[in-house]
Fold this sequence. Notes:
Keywords: ATP-binding, GTP-binding, Nucleotide-binding. The chain has helices at 18-27, 41-48, 71-80, 94-104, 116-132, 145-156, 207-214, 217-239, 257-271, and strands spanning 6-12, 31-33, 55-59, 85-91, 136-139, 165-172, 183-186, 244-251, 275-280. The chain contains nine helices and nine strands. The protein starts with 5 loop residues before the first strand and ends in a 6-residue tail after the last strand. The longest helix has 23 residues, at 217-239.
Amino acid sequence: xxxxxxxxxxxxxxxxxxxxxxxxxxxxxxxxxxxxxxxxxxxxxxxxxxxxxxxxxxxxxxxxxxxxxxxxxxxxxxxxxxxxxxxxxxxxxxxxxxxxxxxxxxxxxxxxxxxxxxxxxxxxxxxxxxxxxxxxxxxxxxxxxxxxxxxxxxxxxxxxxxxxxxxxxxxxxxxxxxxxxxxxxxxxxxxxxxxxxxxxxxxxxxxxxxxxxxxxxxxxxxxxxxxxxxxxxxxxxxxxxxxxxxxxxxxxxxxxxxxxxxxxxxxxxxxxxxxxxxxxxxxxxx
Length: 286
């Protein structure tokens, strides 16, 4: 029998994509239990120990009602037994959550016959402690189901040579800084291809734009310095058992500089044995 080696708890806001995350974990070979009361987590772990289930994921959320309150205690009890759970927390902006819930034609489980937003406010308060101890936080506000699935798979698939996985995300500052980033870099110090007429309609994925951005002396300096910074922090992340790092690289609109630099930086990480996913959050929004 194969013992349990990896245990993931999926939680977060209603409508933030817990179902999509669960399906992504299933594709990675996890045995997934949905809507499990926190009080039954230890029972579930005991049931699969030695039962040829090496990867277990449980979805715990506010649908459990009063049962949810014991989640932190359950995780601490398991930790004392030497079983470390990785907590994946999903969230999104209120207006997006409300829109998704309305589209699904379902009331919020904590709305208590009031407004949907009231339910989300109660849920955020209920989840405050769990979010604070989450290993991975993913903001799904601007992610479709395919992007989210890729982020989850990148976080929990087999690690690269260093045991560290990374997600490099380009973004536009005018659309807001990603709240789930571990590190943020600003590319607005580089000349903007937007002001070069022939480059304006292209993106950082196009060779002329990429070559223009990467040919800037400061671009090479940034790649070297940031690569060294990540290299220096790697031991610290792994020591704290944090094996997934989200690096956000931004420019004004998230179309030219940040896209080109994200692709280039991801290649550097891969060259050092870090399994790396690239996400262009705002490309195509303008």
